[in-house]
């Protein structure tokens, strides 16, 4: 089983949608991968073309400029995006950030931002992580102090995806010292005085995805920029994490499939000692093990996605999906590189970049050690 052809849904509309997503990635993303890798960013034209093709924020209702589809369409984009090795942050915007506005935004906020997110006119980021606060969100020190009709936001964020290109940042800030009940979410436009982007961070992998430091120096935002209720930020973040972690699992599964396919194509052609690498028993056994893990993985993705569409996927199940699929991606990608031999260590082969890019999936969205804690505490 190679490629994603086995993912074509019997539902004709979803099959047609997948075909359109695949064509888009082949035409508008894959020819630019090397340039984006070198430049450290995916250009805005890609976002706008993705919006024009109907790939952004599928669940946004028609009233706000979206198609009003269910999350299974997001999953199709995530699968094809991951398989095509595209480093853009469009799945973060579609699968995570749009839902914050849909669930907690005021009518004015929804009207202002959702249609722009759907079209690709606006790129959005979420600023949670700080130099001293990663998975432990209660350690966040960025502050938002009420001052008349405004909040004044001060602090530093780091490792922020879409940070270099974002027009809007959802900022997690502390509005009181009441632990988890002291966190709130704010919409901060990138042109606000006092907001500054830091450097585009130099990462091991995902070089084409901009990841930034962000600085907030007494940034004033009106009270109307508060997202939801003051003090409810932590609860909002926890409520949205299962979908985010499911998205990571789906992307990891698709990337692992691509790594397997690259390895299989290589060993079918490459020869050593007078025979194809594929003809050695060790190679066949390694590939058989990878194929088995992928088969199990796709079945689990379908199960978790069905649970999520029914509103039944628990935080523990989502954590388990993120844990297993990202671990599996690491294992499969590492074996795929090994099967390439010395060629796998050369950047001219796709597997080298895929191997580097795979490492972070065990870290973002909550480290896999945190996933084990989430699962273990519920036992």
Description:
The chain is an alpha+beta fold and 379 residues long. It folds into 3 domains: 5-122, Orthogonal Bundle (Butyryl-Coa Dehydrogenase, subunit A, domain 1), CATH 1.10.540.10; 125-231, Butyryl-CoA Dehydrogenase, subunit A, domain 2 (Beta Barrel), CATH 2.40.110; 235-377, Butyryl-CoA Dehydrogenase, subunit A, domain 3, CATH 1.20.140. 49% of the residues lie in helices and 16% in strands. The chain is built from 11 helices and 10 strands. It has helices at residues 12-29, 33-39, 44-52, 71-83, 90-104, 107-119, 233-269, 281-309, 315-340, 350-358, 368-377; strands spanning 124-127, 143-147, 150-161, 168-174, 183-189, 195-200, 211-222, 226-227, 271-272, 275-276. The longest helix has 37 residues, at 233-269. It is globular. The two termini are 35 Å apart.
CA radius of gyration = 21 Å
CATH class of the largest domain: Mainly Alpha
Our measurement of the CA-to-CA distance between the termini, rounded to an integer number of angstroms, reads 35 Å
Number of helices: 11
CATH topology of the largest domain: Butyryl-CoA Dehydrogenase, subunit A, domain 3
What is the string of SSEs from the N terminus onward? HHHHHHEEEEEEEEHEEHHHH
The CATH H-level homologous superfamily of the largest domain = Butyryl-CoA Dehydrogenase, subunit A, domain 3
Mean pLDDT over all positions: 96
Spans where pLDDT lies below 50 across 5 or more residues: none
β-strand percent reads: 15-25%
Relative helix content:
40-55%
User: What is the topology, as strand order, of the major beta sheet?
Assistant: 1-4-5-8
- What's the CATH architecture name of the largest domain? Up-down Bundle
